[in-house]
């Protein structure tokens, strides 16, 4: 398989958030700023790459009937690793992401790739697939975070661009739904233009 | 009184879907018909309350005494996954009609982050056994309220002439945003 195609599909064609609508809880929950989105995306990417790697390594050892629980245990182990590392080295980000770090376990993107891709493909392809899907997810979260931060607090990656108040609504919960809704409309418009 | 406050706060003020962003996947995925939304709510309520109860007991009686609190994530998700299987088997035996109604939704619940989320939140908030149970019930009601209302709106939405680029998921998100805005009106009542 063409590895470049395998890698790049996660960004546009099969983007987890904008096309497949997977992993929406962290997408909406943590994107109050671009840096939170980026951090969450990278944490998820790490789990995705590692779980894809291990799943493709042990795919022939696991009986078909218990494969889902087995995948969940593998994913949960890496999530625990991420939790401990982040608590130790980036406590600020860890607090900001809060509940959504342990919830990477139930992120449908991670289990979805383990089941749909890593359990059927070679180690190398699974690694590339995990990295592509993960970075595509990271991109989506960072874009949404940047848009919400820009509109909601008038800043970009923490740099204040306008003084005074901005549209506070966009960093409050309703703003998450509205911003993602309009970004999806934008994505549809681009899709129509290019096809 | 304290329990009533927990319920009101879980249902309205910090609604699990519209304010906490948990369980968005079923919220968007199975909300196109009121009937399926009701089925999903039933299944989630069932699993959420039992899961919170069981994970609370395991956390207090196994994880804390052994000093392995860092195993929380792995333990909780395993408990939830096996619980879902167990509920499925028991339901099939004792109540076939209920199994028929909830059956297809049960496997989906393992990866519903609302269930794990509520279990983790109950532990984080240092609730007691009864408080945790009430908290889970409140959140389940909140999930049902958001999901069923939203599916009602989406059924109506199908009849409207929505611009083609907004059809489907984009307009659903915008509607959800407006609902969340309405729910913000409850802020401060508790």
Architecture blueprint of SSEs:
The complex is a heterodimer of chains A (195) and B (190).
Chain A: H1 3-8, H2 24-29, H3 34-58, H4 67-89, H5 91-97, H6 108-118, H7 123-153, E1 155-156, E2 159-160, H8 173-194
Antiparallel strand pairs in A: 1-2
Helix pairs in contact in A: 3-4, 3-6, 3-7, 4-5, 4-6, 6-7, 7-8
Chain B: H1 2-13, H2 24-29, H3 34-66, H4 72-94, H5 96-102, H6 106-109, H7 113-124, H8 129-157, H9 169-183
Notes on the structure:
The complex is a heterodimer of chains A (195) and B (190). Chain A is globular. A two-stranded antiparallel sheet of chain A has the order 1-2. Chain A is built from eight helices and two strands. Chain A is an all-alpha fold. With 190 residues, chain B is mainly α. Chain B has one domain (20-184). In chain B, 74% of the residues lie in helices and 0% in strands. Chain B contains nine helices and no strands. Chain B has helices spanning 2-13, 24-29, 34-66, 72-94, 96-102, 106-109, 113-124, 129-157, 169-183. Chain B is globular. The N and C termini of chain B lie close together (12 Å). The mean pLDDT of chain B is 88. The chains are: A mainly alpha (195), B mainly alpha (190). The A-B interface holds A 21-22, 24-29, 68-69, 72-73, 76-77, 79-80, 83-84, 99, 102-103, 105-108, 111, 169, 172-178, 180-182, 184-185, 188-189, 192 and B 18-25, 28-29, 70-74, 76-78, 81-82, 110-113, 116-117, 120-121, 124, 165-166, 169-174, 176-178, 180-181, 184.
Quaternary assembly: heterodimer
Q: Number of DSSP helices of chain B?
A: 9
Radius of gyration of chain B in whole Å, from Cα? 17 Å
The biggest beta sheet of chain A is recorded as: 2 strands, antiparallel
Which term fits the overall shape of chain A? Answer: globular
**Intertermini distance of chain A:** 25 Å
The helical percent of chain B reads over 70%
What is the helix/strand order of chain A? Answer: HHHHHHHEEH
